[in-house]
Amino acid sequence: MKKIILLLAASLLSHAFAQEQQGMQVMVELVSGTKQKAQFLGIENDTVSLGGYIKNEFTVLKFPRSQFRSILDSLGNNILDFEPVDPGATVSAGEDSSATASDTTAADSAQAVENSVATLPAGERIPDKLFIGYETSGVELGKSALLTAMTFEILRELDGRFDMRGFNATPHCNDRACVQEFWKSHGVKDILFGKISTAKHPDSVIVEITRALYEEDLPTISKEQITISHNALFQDAAKDGALVNLIKKAAGFPVPSKRKRSYIHVETDPESATISRPEKDAICKSPCTFAVTDTGKIEINAYWNVDKHLWGAQTFVHPLPGDTVKISLKLKRVIPEIKIVSNPVGAEIFPGKEEITRDSKSIGTTPKIVSLTNPGMTHLRLRKEGFRDTLVNFYVAPVSEINLDISMEHLTDFEEIKKQEEWIKQRRISYIGKVLMGSSIAPILAGSLLLYLAQKNYDDADDIKAELKMPSAAKGENYNSKKEKNRDLVDTGDRYSIIGGSLIGTGIAVFGLGLFFTF
Question: Which option is the CATH number for 2-115: 3.10.310.10, 2.30.42.10, 1.10.287.70, 2.30.30.100?
Fold first, then answer.
């Protein structure tokens, strides 16, 4: 509540200072990131006094010193960094001391900016959960500052681990992606970004909260928003708990539903088909009736798996609050084809959502058509050299064609690039090992064949040798011919044995080398 009063009062101070000057002109920055001009009247007992004109009357407001991030004078000095000074004291622009202070401040400011580019102040506590604040477009600064404070206080009540850091905490960043990556690199796993902008109708504003949740290396992005009146912003935000429910949904807290139930009755031909909705488990077997709380168009799927053949049907219905919608579906034979296209093309596709390892087997590269016969949630990972791995979760509906168009992000983190390069290197080594193991089969088979032929020649030579030992064998021309043939068979067998043994030895060596590279 103190922060709300502070921000509201600070917004009022920004209206008028053109009249009588009673204190030093300063730029006030609150811990929420809000900046205002004011007249500085002094610091006493850790209480800051500021002045300004409200309805043409000079008003003095006092706030705890802890509510301010900085109070900068006309020279850029942060008054909070020094002992309390006389607010009426001024320094002539022509004095040497002014020039010295200006030079020193400029040097210190330049150094401060340089040091803040990608680091945090030494000893600063890193919160578990972080609210970055609201980006504002077309909404008064005072209103946005008050809404920021209200949102942060609600988050703190929901979970005390929430803290707030404005966009000015990352001065080197120009967009959300940079801010998100900065805090993620410092260990923050749950980051909320707010945005307040004018709606299509000029009398309305959109309050939007985007959540980046890091349950693994890749963030899960979700977004919630409400549209409320610009002129009655806080009344609408409080009405029916609209702002509280928005914050709860955005931060992942359950929100009780008070919506009236509707019912859907499904019949299929043939019966006993499984009835389901996208991203949900099976609901029932037809014919059946189930309740929903949705108010918009919803998708209903029916499918039947018979002998690895899929029969299915799909329809869309509009529930009637408090009433029953009846639908009838006729199943037909379908083969869901998933057309996977990526930018850039040539990304390898790996089934499942597990981390990709050297032994992970891809099912092809994009563009690719994959046939699936089991409806339900399916997970794929895409990997492309130089790009961040992309996890794709999608629902396989019992329809003929499903298109997936995936854009991949360039890798910029040095550690991720190094890790990917190491994976590519190990995978190539493993591939070479498998090629060597496969190549070893040919010489082993050829060597075995030669050893078989050698043994056959030795057997034939033994038969001829036995004939030559018979007493009836005359040592004539036939005897000499057989003796020569016996010698040729033995010589040929010896050559086959040497070559065959060498081939088998080479094959075993190549297989062993491939086994070493593979494992």
Answer: 2.30.30.100
Q: Which residues of 392-431 are buried (b: 16+ CB within 10 A; e: fewer)?
A: bebbbbbeeebebebebeebeeeeeeeebeebeeebeebe
Strand ranges inside 93-188, DSSP E:
129-137, 162-164
**CA angle, residues 375, 342, 279, in degrees to nearest 5:** 25
Query: What number of helices (H) and strands (E) belong to the chain?
Result: 9, 25
CB-count burial class (<10 Å; 0-12, 13-18, 19+) for 296: exposed
Beta bridge mates, 57: 54
- The encoded tokens of residue 232 equal 């009655």
My answer on whether omega of the bond before 287 falls inside 30° of 0, hence cis, is yes
H helical segments located in 116-218? 141-158, 176-185
pTM above 0.90, yes or no: no
Q: What does the buried/exposed string (b/e) look like for 174-201 if buried means 16 or more CB atoms within 10 Å of the residue's CB?
A: eebeebbbbbbeeebebbbbbbbeebee
Query: Which residue spans within 167-297 are E strands per DSSP?
Result: 190-198, 204-213, 220-229, 262-269, 274-276, 284-285, 288-292
| Domain range list for the chain | 2-115, 129-251, 262-334, 337-412, 437-518
2-115 matches 129-251 in fold: no
Cα-only R_g, the chain: 39
Closest C-alpha among 465, 453, 459, 466 to residue 496: 453
Q: What architecture (CATH level 2) is domain 129-251?
A: 3-Layer(aba) Sandwich (3.40)
How many CA atoms lie less than 13 Å away from 212 in the CB half-sphere? 21
The tens-digit pLDDT sequence of the chain (519 residues) is 444 444 444 444 444 333 445 667 888 887 766 777 778 888 877 788 887 765 556 677 777 777 788 888 776 778 877 544 443 443 333 334 333 333 434 344 334 333 444 556 656 778 889 999 898 887 887 788 888 889 999 999 999 899 998 888 888 888 888 888 889 888 899 999 999 988 877 788 899 999 999 987 788 889 999 988 888 888 888 888 889 999 999 999 988 766 667 889 999 988 888 898 886 668 888 899 988 887 788 889 888 887 778 888 889 988 887 788 899 999 988 888 889 998 889 898 888 878 887 778 888 888 988 887 778 788 888 988 889 888 888 888 888 788 888 888 888 888 888 888 888 787 777 777 778 788 888 888 888 888 888 888 888 888 877 777 766 555 666 777 777 888 888 888 888 888 888 888 888 888 887 777 766
